[in-house]
Amino acid sequence: MEITDLTPAERRVWEAFPLGEGIDFREGEDEDAADGAAWGPGRTLRARVLRELLLGGPVREGRVAGLKVTGARITGRLDLTYGTVGHPVRLRHCHFEQAPDLYGARMVALVLSDSVLPGLTAGNLRAEGVVRLTCCRIPGPVRLQGAKLAGALFANGAHLGTPGEVPEEAVLQLGHAEVGADVWARGLVAHGEVHLNGAVVRNQVNLNDAELNAPGRTALHAEVLTVGTDLHAMRLRARGRVNLSGARIPRQLNLAYARLSNPGGPALRASSSAIGELWLREAAPVEGDVNLRRAQLDLLHVPPEVWPGRVQLDGLGYRMLTPHLPAERRLPLLERDRDGYLPHPYEQLATAYRTVGDDAAARTVQLAKLRRHRRTLPPYARLWGLLQDAAVGYGFRPMRAALWLLLLLCAGTLAFALHRPPALKPSEAPGFNPLFYTLDLLLPIIDFGQEGAYAPRGWYQWLSYLLIVTGWVLATTIAAGVSRSLSRQ
């Protein structure tokens, strides 16, 4: 292209480029780039002119060249496919008639803040610095899959997609991208799916105050996402599934004050993930299922009222559980598991209570586990379980056994004191003692020589049988409880 072919607006940009100077075409700072289609030739730039400038424009020794344009209307498609741009590109508050194509390009930095674009194709982009889409409005897809950015990606306040529509193609595509710093998208509004699956972010992902709208679909698809530090999503509003299955977040997944909604399907899926801390403090009750199967956490902070009606928790491991609440507040959650009775969630909850020294709560959880398991047994086994539960609470209520023994001992002692049973061999029988005779009946491992020397008759004989049977039941259940206690130690 000859220099004589340039319009006055293009000539200004061409001459400013080697000096690294900026050109601002705006008539006022409150202009809206959405009105850019009506901007006249005095602020219109042809995309092919910008391409020639970026790929082979003039440079001046001792100056840092760069394209710095504000408030321009860009016609045609800015096609830099596989091109190498050795200068920063800053096109702020601009109106693009067609979606730029930067597939496979190599760039220093790309800034499109406050611009309006139909879409952006930049798969496999290589950028030495930042990529800024701050406050951009982009109804079409933003394709950055496989991109490698040495700096951060900024999408603060960006609006992607069209309100009321959920396109088949994701509106933000960062699948398998590598970001050398942060992904900063506070206040992002997306009408469609956001894909971060397989992405690697060296520092943090920030989605605070974001709104992700994909009803009935996946609002955030971040399977096997790897984050260097945190994923912040405080006050996130997600209509659709949030999928973090297999994600690696070593510090904090912060969903405080969030609202997750996907009725009839999974609202939050973080199965097989490894997360330092999962926070849902002050969050709204989750609308939809929560799947944390096989996830591994250091700390889990989810108040009971936040959990939904159905969960999947088998294999979930956590070291600490906050806030610290009585076991009775936590146990109803385990009844909601879609897979029915599973022993592991109960064992994990009991372990968490023992970790903080609350052995009483741990025993309550273990007792609830056995009672829940009893419902899955055949009738005869359920009956035996009921006897064990009533007698000594499956061994987790030892004082109950002591009370039963004391009551039976008092009843037997009184009964046999009032009606002494006859001796089998009066000449050889020891002196009758109603207290020790009752102990002989109750405790099968103790023999005071009373039981074999005397034989009650009538209903007293039936009383002795009852004491023997209940003594065996108590002894068996106490032994089972002691065995469980030793195994836990």
Descriptive report:
This protein is of the alpha/beta class and 489 residues long. Helix content is 27%, strand content 25%. The strands form 4 sheets. The protein has a 13-stranded parallel β-sheet. Strands 10, 13, 14, 17, 18, 21, 22, 25, 28, 30, 32 and 34 form a 12-stranded parallel β-sheet that branches. It has a 7-stranded parallel β-sheet with strand order 5-8-11-15-19-23-26, with no helix packed on it. The N and C termini lie far apart (83 Å). The mean pLDDT is 89.
Give a short summary of the structure.
With 489 residues, this protein is α/β, with parallel strands linked by helices. 27% of the residues lie in helices and 25% in strands. The chain has nine helices and 35 strands.
